[in-house]
Give the backbone structure.
Amino acid sequence: MVTLQLGTRHAREIAERVPDPELPMLTLADLGVLRDVRLTEDGTVVAELTPTYSGCPAMAEMRADVAARLREAGYERVEIRTVLNPPWTSDWITPEGRRKLAEHGIAPPDAAPRGPVPLTLSPTRREVPCPRCGSADTEETSRFAATSCKALWRCRACREPFEYVKEI
Ligand SMILES: [Zn+2]
């Protein structure tokens, strides 16, 4: 049992360090998509991943990367499972992950609203502070940046464009 526990911890550390294909400054642990990693008695590593944004093509790449890293580390039998429930939300990005995004000039997602959402007739204006200068005087220029997970914003104060990881 001790060996299984050590193997599980080792396999988890390897999977946690795999970078996200679309936000390579984040690891899968930072992103919060790694639900479980365990070594079973027959020597198979079972890793459970939850996809981030629906339609995000990164999921296939993520699965392949985790499997490849584990095989490189000597685990011959790797099983990657997709867990859809509960669905991932941008809240699962760790504080460390948010710090890394900001460091790279990318605005981290707002915390998703919790509890009952008040019903309003007009959409509330979202405020995304500029990750470079901190100004709240920003505007969305494109709902879709290079990937579907990010939107393109511009800061009116420092005039710099920046990417924003959408909240879901
Ligand atoms: Zn700015």
Q: What stands out?
A: The chain has a mean pLDDT of 87.
